Amino acid sequence: MADQKQRITTLLFDCDNTLVLSEEKAFEACAELANEILESKGKPERYTGAQLMADFVGQNFRGMITNLKNIYKYEMDDATLDSYVQRELTAVIRSLKGNPDESGKPTKEIVQPCEGVDAELKKLADAKKPDGSSKYLMSVVSSSAYPRVYVSVDLTNQLQYFEDPKPKDAPKADPNSLPKEESRVRVFSAATSMRKPLSKPDPAVYIHAMQRLGFITAKKSDIGLVEPGSEEQYDQEWAKYSLDPKECVAVEDSKSGATAAVAAGIPTIGYTGSYPEEEVEEKTKILLDAGVAVMMKHWSEFEKCLAEVEAGAQNTKPAKK
Length: 321
Fold this sequence. Notes:
This protein is of the alpha/beta class. The protein folds into 2 domains: 10-21 and 112-310, 3-Layer(aba) Sandwich (Rossmann fold), CATH 3.40.50; 23-96. Helix content is 41%, strand content 8%. The protein has a 6-stranded parallel sheet with strand order 3-2-1-4-5-6, sandwiched between helices. Helix 10 (277-290) links the parallel strand 5 and strand 6 (294-296). It starts with 9 loop residues before the first strand and ends in an 11-residue tail after the last helix. Residues 222-226 have low confidence and may be disordered.
């Protein structure tokens, strides 16, 4: 235990199977496309959604297909990969919305929140500093594409915790088009928010989120910022605004996600509430091996887990790569 209590100002939540129960729906849609790719490459292997989820949970579709290329030794050019990534995004969003019919009415259950998370998010949003301002800045940091994450938290009524109010003169969004990233919405995607699409376990999306949120905290605006041309200049410019990782806490349910957050220097809470009871022990070990500081089985435990992190709790085992 540390002698001095850490001051946590910023909470960074993974989305899929941490805030919303979306992984099963998403991987069902992914399996159809993955099998189409394997068949087109003359490979006999086929996956179910559950098998893909077991092997690639925490990674986005681009990362998963890249790994399948390495496993089964086939080639795919960037344009073809991009086309599959777009098809997957459309299919997953449709699944999250409950496979709506022509009238827009869901034919299946729409995506649901993880048990207990809504009450906890409201409690965190209501927490105030002595001056009346919000105690925590809350954000979503995901491997999944921004439109998918946005739709997930919107359908579950969680978007309110991760956005600032729309300007009164803002144009009305087209319900038939994919949501576009806005600086007022604190949702960050490894797939779409950065110059180069990546996936967890790469920590880049967490570093990106801390820089953007630091910019917001400094009461600046993305509007009017002239971004440097080279990647090195770009990184150096944004690094000036980064939050201190030690004032942040991440919540992750997967090895890939926990590895990314820990590599970014962020104290991390491992979450197993979305797993079947018979898998919890195994997943707990995986998350601890990835370097999480404390474990959480249900969202009702979050306040206690956050207090442990603030008190200096840390995983004494070195993270396994």
